[in-house]
Amino acid sequence: MSSNKFLALCTLLVICSNTKAQTIINRDPFIESMVKEVNADSLRSYISTMVGFGTRHTLSSTTDKNRGIGAAREWVAQKFREFGNSSGGRLTAYVDTVNLNPDGRRIDVRTNLGNAMAILKGTDPNDKRIYMISGHLDSRVSDILNRTAESPGANDDGSGVAAVIECARIMSKRSFPATVIFVAFSGEEQGLLGAGFLAEKAKRENWNIDALLNNDIMGSNNSHDTKIIDNTKLRVFSEAFSVNDTGRVALNIRAMGLENDGKPRQLARYVKELGERYVDHIEIMMIYRNDRFLRGGDHTPFVERKYAAVRLTEMNENFNHQHQDLRTENGIVYGDLIEFMDFEYLRKNTAVNLAVLANLAKAPPAPEEVKVDVRNLTNSTALSWKKPSAGNAKGYFILMRETSSPVWQKKFYTEQLTLTLPYSKDNYFFAVQSVSAAGNESLPVIPTVAR
User: I need a labelling partner for 419 at 20 to 30 A (CA). Which of 105, 252, 370, 446 fits?
Assistant: First the structure.
């Protein structure tokens, strides 16, 4: 045996004696059973009802019982309440409202804005984590102020709200240590108003939002101009780091080379890993920007307040069916109509959300005070951490990737609170996750410097 092969074998034995290399990650049967319950017909029925309200424009009627945003948001809240009846009192629902004055732009009259919300309370009183899933209920046509025209909003964003409702239906029948909040925002098309209202409220009241999955335009499989048809890819948009990361925080990001490791980007990696683990025939495409080019979504107010928030969107948008008056021109049908949707694709995209939410809410909280030792110059990396203050972490995954890799490449398992790996911190990034006995992982934590 050559000296190089002998050295490689010794290195492998050292690793195996301290860790269990994770080569295959099995699906948790608890989560797998929920994923199988996601139903395309249920999603279609939700969207059919939403389309039936005629318009869901933010400035439409809030008092009409059958038409407009008011009737739509009350219907969503009522669906949540129905699910709450079988939750043992754990799921509660309401419409969270605020009155807005005209802004001279997209609000021209005093408006009652309402977000339809449901809260699935966590079972561990010591676990303060909150996970959120959202879509926006309001719809629009070509004129942003037209509140009377038919505006079906089937895909934008009936698809995202349908995913929220379906996840609430399925998760309400189970319990999780952490709390899950389901939200149908209003006011997205008028300037992310409902999301901005809730994000500011959450920040003011110190909500411990660990992650937000925002779903917007996720139920159509084709583009109008490039003619690409594909229902096997889903985009996840994520910010590299918060625009508010300034001063010492920004200097630390630069010093440690963490420009690609902010909270939203870590969540996006998690979405890719979990979504592809549980949902067949789907590939999560990580897009390295907060949203589509020069556009925005309801996750943005949360990102701006330093929460981990991402946007999930179909791979190929069809702009003939987005922000369009209902009409036919030169044989082309315009408008956001239900007949242009792919409900099998929406089923898969909803299942991705469900798998990610369930795994996060079932996992223990992340490890605390994760540190990397830099007291000496070494070609190995020594990590340490403390167990989370709540939950039951059975062990920990140490994640590793090359600096040029978009995703984590290796996982090492340990039940200790320290681990030294024969890989240089000059060449790799590391993070640590808590893991439950069933294999549910927390979000990763990038180490800070221990001197």
Answer: 252
Share of the chain above pLDDT 90, in %: 88
The amino acid present at 197, given as its one-letter code, is: F
pLDDT in tens, 394-407: 999 999 999 999 99
pTM as predicted: 0.93
Number of residues assigned to the chain: 451
Q: What separation in angstroms does the CA of 285 have from each of 18, 210, 238? A: 34, 22, 11
358 close to 274: Cβ distance less than 8 angstroms: no
Q: What is the pLDDT of residue 252?
A: 84
List, for residues 321-333, the tens digit of each pLDDT value: 999 999 999 999 9
Q: Are strands 368-373 and 448-450 parallel, antiparallel or unpaired?
A: parallel
How far is Cα 148 from Cα 283, in angstroms, rounded to an integer?
Answer: 39
What's the confidence (pLDDT) of residue 392? 93
Cα atoms found within 13 Å of the Cα of residue 123, Cβ hemisphere only:
13
CA pseudo-torsion sign 397, 398, 402, 405: positive
Cα separation, 189 vs 146, whole angstroms: 12
SS3 385: strand
Mean pLDDT of the chain: 93
The token pair at 319 is 């702009």
Q: How far from chain centre, in Å, is Cα 377?
A: 39
3-state SS record for 272-340:
HHHHHHHCCCCEEEEECCCCCCCCCCCCHHHHHCCCCEEEEEECCCCHHHCCCCCEEECCEEECCCHHH
pLDDT at 401: 97
**What gap in Å lies between CA 222 and CA 341, rounded to an integer?**
9
Strand intervals (E) in 121-197: 130-136, 179-185
- Residues contacting 255, CB < 8 A, separation 6+: none
Q: Which domains does the chain have, with CATH numbers?
A: 3-26+366-450 (2.60.40.10), 38-362 (3.40.630.10)
